[in-house]
Write a structure and sequence with these properties.
The chain is mostly helical. The protein is built from 9 helices and 2 strands, in the order H-H-H-H-H-H-H-E-E-H-H. 48% of the residues lie in helices and 6% in strands. It has a two-stranded antiparallel ribbon. The chain starts with a helix and ends in a 12-residue tail after the last helix. This is Protein PBDC1.
């Protein structure tokens, strides 16, 4: 799972403000390791993950999901996921299947297998709970990128994303301006 320092780095907060070891961060009174599981940090990372979600959903609206490749390693990810989580339903996710203590114990070593295989495997990413609906606050869970790939590759191959193109149209992305 990502450290708080990785979360800050992903959010663009400079390393001299927050460090995992306390280094320069200690001078500013912030030590990422002491923050623990801060829901505020998770929320900030979720905003960053929303951009990824918009792109993903637009792809689902525009391309037949069975033809969509999310990574060069889709086949490997799908095979390993279904070997390890053969009974996990991707049709409608349950938070306890991803975040309960027992689930974390099973997911953690599985995710680590992809540390060198999938770039940014541990970055926070939003996944839809119900694949028949769009991304929304009530229809998302924050997961690691490799969990997202496992779930969405499975949904694409198992037909769970097939109805999206008929129900939704791609939305123009909002451009962010720098101030």
């Amino acid at each position: 799972m990502p450290t708080q320092a990785e979360i800050f780095a992903e959010l663009g907060i400079p390393g001299n403000v927050v460090t995992a070891s306390g280094g320069a961060g200690a001078a500013s009174g912030i030590n990422a390791d002491e923050l623990g599981n801060d829901s505020t940090m998770e929320g900030m990372w979720a905003m960053k993950a929303m951009e990824h979600a918009e792109i993903h959903f637009n792809l689902l609206c525009a391309v037949d999901p069975k033809l969509l490749r999310l990574t060069p390693k889709d086949d490997l990810i799908y095979q390993e996921f279904r070997k390890e989580f053969s009974d996990l339903s991707v049709a409608k996710l349950k938070e306890e299947d991803l975040k309960s203590p027992a689930a974390k114990e099973k997911w953690r070593p599985f995710c680590m297998k992809f540390e060198k295989e999938v770039e940014d495997y541990s970055f926070a990413t939003l996944v839809r709970i119900d694949p028949f609906d769009e991304y929304s606050e009530s229809n998302t869970i924050l997961v690691t990128r490799i969990q997202f790939f496992c779930i969405e590759i499975s949904r694409n191959r198992e037909g769970q994303n097939d109805s999206i193109r008929g129900k939704f149209k791609p939305k123009p992305r909002t451009k962010k301006t720098k101030q």
